Amino acid sequence: MSDNYLEIGVITRFQGNKGEVRVKATTDIPERFLDIDTVYLKRDDDFKELEIEYIRFHKQFIIIKFFAVNSIDEAEELKNYQILIDESEKYLLPEDNFYVSDLIDCEVYLESGKYLGKLIDVVDTSGTDIFLVKGQDKEYMLPASREMILKIDLENQKIIVDPIPGILDL
């Protein structure tokens, strides 16, 4: 196993009285939970591996029952743990689709070659995602549209953008 993990969800609370936990998915593909047998849980410095007994979907949440968790008290102790998988288990994405974790810390440049800053976050807006770029003097919010994001080069951790006029002045 590598030292690189990918977050796919966060435990929000217990569910029912059998030791189940309610999970808010942080992946765009919640069905991917159905393909895993074991996950890693992390909160602060606490890190553990748990085997999944079963998974079901309820409204907008994923309900997970771990073999080692059999009561409300045990399930409640898992609140606010991140659910991680080994990076080697992540899905291959279609061309021109990227994992946010792979984009964070990329250097962002204008088409002219001028350095804009470092990508610090991608905000999901239910529409076009927003790239948050920390420049030397200010932070920029750039829509992650095909018109503005010209090139993403993960190998060199570099993103080339061509923002619409005036957006950098906001």
TrEMBL record:
Entry keyword Cytoplasm: yes
PANTHER family linked: RIBOSOME MATURATION FACTOR RIMM
Subunit record text: Binds ribosomal protein uS19.
Keywords of this entry: Chaperone, Cytoplasm, Ribosome biogenesis, rRNA processing
This protein's name: Ribosome maturation factor RimM
GO molecular function, one term: ribosome binding
Predominant subcellular localization, coarse grouping: cytoplasm
Gene3D superfamilies reported for this sequence: PRC-barrel domain, RimM
HAMAP family xrefs: Ribosome_mat_RimM (MF_00014)
Family to which the UniProt record says this protein belongs: Belongs to the RimM family.
Pfam family, one: PRC_RimM
Residue ranges of domain RimM N-terminal in the record: 8-88
One of the GO biological process terms: ribosomal small subunit biogenesis
Keyword presence, Translocase: no
One GO term describing the cellular component: ribosome
Role of this protein: An accessory protein needed during the final step in the assembly of 30S ribosomal subunit, possibly for assembly of the head region. Essential for efficient processing of 16S rRNA. May be needed both before and after RbfA during the maturation of 16S rRNA. It has affinity for free ribosomal 30S subunits but not for 70S ribosomes.
